[in-house]
Amino acid sequence: MRIAILDDYQRVALSYADWSTLGPDCEIEVFDRNLGTVDEAASALESFDVLCLMRERMDMPRALIERLPRLRLVVVTGARMRTLDMQAAAEHGVTVCHTHAGESKYATPELAWGLILSCARWIPQEHARVTEGKWQETIGIALGGQTLGLLGLGKLGSRMVPVAKAFDMDVVAWSPNLTDERAAEVGARRVEKDELFKISDVVSIHLVLGERSRGLVGERELSLMKPTSILVNTSRGPIIDEAALMGALREGRIRGAGLDVFDHEPLPAGHPMRTIQNAVLTPHLGYVTENAYKAFFSDTVANIAAWKAGSPVRVLAAAAAKT
Question: What is the reported pLDDT for 84?
Fold first, then answer.
């Protein structure tokens, strides 16, 4: 049985779990690069029985599944997978299993604060100057007394609130179904969406990508923001109109942006976002922590072992995959 571990950028999968428990009949190959096209992926993966995916780093559309004749099991890390065609998997007899969610409920909000502070004090830019033998050039802003606007106040968004309070920030929030009562429960104040963009000094996105949230932050919303404000996205790239954001940053219509997610990942080498000086960019690190990876890969091995034994566990249904 051939097993492919995909998108192991840090080359740690084999050290974070005991793959030897799967037995000598299992041949494991690790891919540390992204297979960016259906043709490339089909050519590389056509001889594998099991694919181990790291979150949504690689799409699994019908066009790819149909070109993998030996594929029988896909293990996805996390509890959902929006980029895998579950109907096509079912039609081709492919079982899809998931792992536990890991610690993203802590890790992602923590990274969001790292991006906020980086934008507020220009930390990456000043670090680069120091390492180049230069000295300070920028002037930062303090967060105390400012307003944090949260787009989304669920599991991740609500964890932003106590940190903001520690910085002595006011917190406002909006989402399509947010109530005044829910916002007050976690220490925030619900406002309408336009008001949030107008009054916030920092806007941080914590919404799930869906039809209602795709393109939610566009030219109009960016035009409502203060020229001194910061936009942070650790959710999904397509929630923001990327072209509109690049225009706002280049023209100085907002102070800066901290982005961990993009429309296309990995971000292409020649992408214009890479050249924008008032953007702090990280390569989708929100959930990338040692504890999360150890949990992901341990569960992956357990999933494969259970499937080999004829009793698959944590089987992902089509509806749950998109929730």
Answer: 94
Q: What is the pTM of this model?
A: 0.93
95/307 Cα distance (integer angstroms)? 9
Report the domain count for the chain. Answer: 2
User: What is the rounded average pLDDT of the residues 258-284?
Assistant: 97
Contact status, residue 255 vs residue 282, Cβ threshold 8 Å? no
- Do residues 33 and 110 share a domain? no
Please determine, for residue 129, whether its predicted confidence score (pLDDT) is greater than 70.
yes
Q: Are residues 86 and 150 in the same domain?
A: no
Dist. CA 231–CA 276, nearest whole Å: 14
Write down the pLDDT at residue 105: 82
- Domain containing 205 — which CATH number? 3.40.50.720
Nearest-angstrom CA–CA distance, 204 and 286: 13
Residue 266 and residue 300 in one domain: no
Residues 42 and 171 in one domain: no
**Cα torsion angle, 23, 29, 34, 40, sign:** negative
Rounded CA gap, 54 and 75, in Å? 9
82: containing domain: 2-103+288-321
8 Å CB contact between 55 and 34: no
Same domain, 115 and 11: no
pLDDT tens sequence across 70-91: 999 999 998 777 889 999 999 9
Residue 287 near residue 107 (C-beta atoms within 8 A)? yes
Q: Are 2 and 27 in contact (CB under 8 A)?
A: yes
Whether 298 and 250 share a structural domain = no
Same domain, 90 and 23: yes
Residues 96 and 244 in one domain: no
Catalytic center residues: 236, 265, 284
Sheet holding 202-205, edge to edge: 189-190, 170-174, 147-151, 202-205, 230-233, 256-259, 279-281
Q: What angle separates helix 123-131 from helix 104-121, to the nearest 10 degrees? A: 70
Q: What is the pLDDT of residues 204-247, one digit of tens each?
A: 999 999 999 999 999 999 999 999 999 999 999 999 999 999 99
Phi, psi values for residue 227, rounded to 5°: -65, -15
DSSP label at residue 317: P
What does the block give as tokens for 258? 């901290």
